[in-house]
UniProtKB/TrEMBL annotation:
GO function term, MF aspect, one: phosphatase activity
InterPro entries: Bact_Sigma-Reg (IPR052016), PPM-type-like_dom_sf (IPR036457), PPM-type_phosphatase-like_dom (IPR001932)
Gene3D superfamilies: PPM-type phosphatase domain (3.60.40.10)
Hydrolase as UniProt keyword: yes
SUPFAM superfamilies, per the entry: PP2C-like (SSF81606)
Keyword terms of this UniProt record: Hydrolase
Coiled-coil ranges from the UniProt annotation: none
SMART domains to which the protein is assigned, alphabetical: PP2C_SIG (SM00331)
Protein name: Phosphatase
Organism whose genome encodes this protein: Streptomyces lydicus
Length: 387
């Protein structure tokens, strides 16, 4: 792995917009690669968009039904090679701590390809992914590559606020998705992991457009500020509630579900301040997890919040949905959360949690038929493995 260490050093020293060039040069010298292409998943998680200089027009590759999408979905290298092909094309997932970023496609002469090259290329992809996260502070290249179309300003604000779209640790795996991806405004999710705890929050801010995005930004940052000050979950809710009320005086408020998981024991502390709801699938049985409903953040001054506790077991799958999911109605008027969500969870039980939110939202789209979404729709899925 000494050569991988060389490319890691080269990536750290490179200009932010030249990371793919550094990797391509390494793979050309090491494996005779004549083409290296990095594609990143778009905000809607439907296409893989090529990383190209601004102004370039390159069609995205669909995630469903493409070789690149196969590598992205399975999170395993997929190789196109045959006795009649002069080249071998290797598609490798680029994923950091469970967050699926995209796919690196490498074309090498067929006589230079063996399965022995895959571990080294996988390490290169990991190094590339880490450096992209750092480079995004200094260049728009990779952010622009994720756009299959233009974002609204409200959606721009919301996507910049998110921690990622999936995360994995030995104790848990989780994924989340928002629709409409290019025009969201009020829904949001956030998480933070320490040595002992996972803190997960799901927010549904009232209003539309910029006003909803501004409200949610205030809520998420107030919760982060309280969490980083070392406060417990109840005080996080209390201080965020004060921040929102001080600014809006009750004219606008936000519904939030706050969860804090003990990574060692599976005990969960919860504060339900509004509308996001949670379901649990245990041994293929799906049931709603009830909480005592408390007031949304910022509705009234000096609201007191109370924490509840429940236990998750290894093998449990939790799904959290905003009201844009469970209140969506079918053409006959039946709400999605009453029955169809449980069916969707069961039907998608074999998918990893990083893929479940998108699958549930596809089922939601089929359920409402031609009826357009009247609100943001947010889904978070968490699989608990335990220690």
């Amino acid at each position: 792995m000494e050569r991988v260490a060389d490319v890691e050093r080269a990536l750290r020293a490179a200009a932010p917009h030249t990371l793919v060039d550094v990797v391509a040069e390494f793979l050309r010298e090491r494996h005779g690669a004549d083409r290296v292409v990095l594609r990143l998943a778009d905000y809607g998680m439907t296409t893989l968009q090529t990383v190209e200089p601004p102004g370039s027009v390159v069609e995205g590759v669909p995630i469903n039904g493409s070789p690149q999408g196969r590598a992205f979905g399975t999170q395993e290298p997929f190789v196109e090679v045959g006795s009649r092909l002069p080249d071998a094309t290797i598609h490798l997932p680029v994923t950091i701590r469970g967050d699926r970023m995209g796919v690196l496609t490498v074309t090498v002469p067929a006589d230079r390809y063996t399965q022995a090259v895959l571990p080294e290329m996988a390490h290169v992809c990991e190094a590339l992914g880490h450096e992209i996260l750092v480079a995004e502070r200094d260049t728009d290249l990779y952010v622009l590559a994720r756009r299959a179309s233009r974002l609204t300003l409200a959606a721009e604000m919301q996507w910049q606020l998110l921690p990622g779209r999936s995360c994995a640790r030995p104790e848990f795996s989780l994924g989340a998705h928002l629709e409409p991806a290019y025009a969201i405004f009020g829904d949001n999710f956030d998480w933070s992991v320490s040595a002992d705890h996972l803190t997960l929050t799901v927010t549904n801010g009232m209003g539309e457009g910029i006003e909803a995005a501004l409200l949610t930004n205030l809520v998420v940052n107030a919760l982060r500020n309280a969490r980083r000050a070392g406060l417990d979950l109840v005080d996080q809710a209390y201080l965020a509630d004060q921040a929102v009320y001080a600014h809006y005086r009750g004219a606008m408020y936000a519904s939030v579900l706050l969860l804090r998981f003990d990574l060692a024991t599976g005990e969960v502390e919860a504060v339900d301040a509004g509308s996001p709801r949670m379901w649990r699938m245990r041994r293929r049985e799906v049931e709603a997890v009830p909480f005592d409903a408390q007031l949304p953040l910022g509705m009234f001054e000096e609201t007191a919040y109370v924490a509840e506790r429940f236990q998750v077991l290894p093998g449990d799958r939790l799904l959290i949905g905003s009201d844009g999911v469970y209140e969506t109605a079918s053409p006959t008027g039946e709400h999605y959360g009453e029955r169809a969500l449980a069916l969707s969870l069961t039907a998608n039980s074999l998918l990893p949690p990083s893929q479940v939110p998108r699958a549930v939202l596809r089922d939601l789209s089929d359920y409402r038929a031609a009826v357009p979404l009247e609100d943001d729709a947010l889904v978070v899925c968490l699989d608990w493995h335990g220690r």
